[in-house]
Structure formats: structure tokens, C-alpha cells
UniProtKB/TrEMBL annotation:
Residue intervals passing through the bilayer: 65-86
Keywords, alphabetical: Membrane, Transmembrane, Transmembrane helix
Origin superkingdom: Eukaryota
Record-given protein name: Peptide synthetase
Species this chain originates from: Effrenium voratum
Amino acid sequence: MKFRRLSSQAGGTRQGPERASCLARMWHHFSTSVMDVFLYRGVQGMTTGLALLSSRRLCPVITEVWEPFALLLVYMAYALGSWYLFSVVLGNLLFNGAAPRSNAYYSTAVTRWFTALTAQQRVFKLPFQAAGSRWQAPILRLLGARVGKRFFCMNEMVLVDAPFTEVGDDVTVDYDGQVRCHSFEDFRLKFTHFKIGHGVTIMTGASVAMCDAGDGATLRPGSLTWKGSNLEPGGIYEGAPAALDLERGGPTLLSKAPSMEKK
């Protein structure tokens, strides 16, 4: 089923992808349907195979107490090495803050973005649990994000577009919370830099999409922001699209703290 805008709302808006060459379309489908689906999994299997060969060469027969620990270190080294090589190095080469802000559907920017996300979020994921630990902020910084102090989140990949995201101090993101800085509008992939202010709370299942969040703002469970609907400092927002909760929309304790200290 195809969904189209009403003629009264279209206003000259493009109703399909921009025209692209046969080569561009072929590369788009080959990259997303072959490389991202099969190539990464093959490389992942080769990494496991190399770890097995290296461990067998190091310890053909286990005769000492320390040898099982040495084998464990070999597998950990290959897992961390492959994650760093493909998710961090390759991912940052393919997709970073220098990406064009507006990209045609069949452009290489779209395939590079999707390939980077496939590596980081589906195939070469971090081999240990970082969510909720002090490791998460440094890892997000490796992926290109600017993350402040005392960041706490229960999701591994909370930032969909890390290179375009800036997170302040004392930010908390609950389970399934997310921050997104891209949109597909008029068959174009668009990126914009957005900032999550100090002391912001994103509750369970809430998503800050294509907007800024002021200091001390709270997005309640299951809520979703729309593009450009910035969260005001100290406000409490709820709904889809999120709107200021008039009953609970006053300044939060976090936003009141500086004024209380002055008194």
C-alpha cells in the first residue's frame, strides 16, 4: 500500500525518490541487500575462526592451569579488536559529523549511514554490557558523540546518530529511551545537530527525535517529540507528539537546585 499526501497538502512536494542513474540504484540495492546482510556476517564468522586458530596454535593441548585463561583472553582480544575496527574505525569513516545535511535516497551517503549502523548496532556490537556503567559514555564518545559527566542510560545504543548528538551533564535515559537526529522527509535523509541539556530525564520508551531538550526537561514514558518541538528548560512533556504537561509542567527539582543553593 502506498501512502501519499493529499494534493492540498503536497504543495509541490516530491512524491517519490529523486531520479538516479542505474549504477546508483544498483549500488544502493547491492549495498543494503547483499553487503550489509551477508558480508558482515561472513567477516564476523572469519573473526571467530581466526580466534579459534590462534587459540589452538597457542595452546594445542591444555596442560597448565593458566592456559584456559589465556584462551579466554585470545577470544576477548579478537572480539574487542573486531568491534573497534568495524564499529569505531570503519563506522566513523563511513558516517561522521561531516556527512551532508540533506541526502538523496539513492546517494552513497544513505548507504554509508546504513552500513555504519548495521556494523555498530547489529553485527559488531560491543562484546560486553556497557549500559548502566561508567564505560558507556567513553564508548559513545568513540562513536562521535559529545557526552557530559555522570551520564546514565540503560540502553546500549541510545544515540542513533552519535556524531550529531551533544549530551550535557547529569542526563538519565531509562529503558528503551532514545535520541535521534535524522529524518526521512520527501525521500531525503536529513541530519541536524541537536543538544540534550544538563539534567534532562528521558523516561521508559520515550524518544527525543529531531529537537533540542532544555536543561532539566523531562520526557515521560512512551512519549515522542516531533521535529522542531524543542523541550523547554524544566518542563515536563508527555504524549505523541509530546506536549507540555500543564499539571506537572513546572520546574523540576533539578532545575530548582541552583536557585535553592543561592538562597
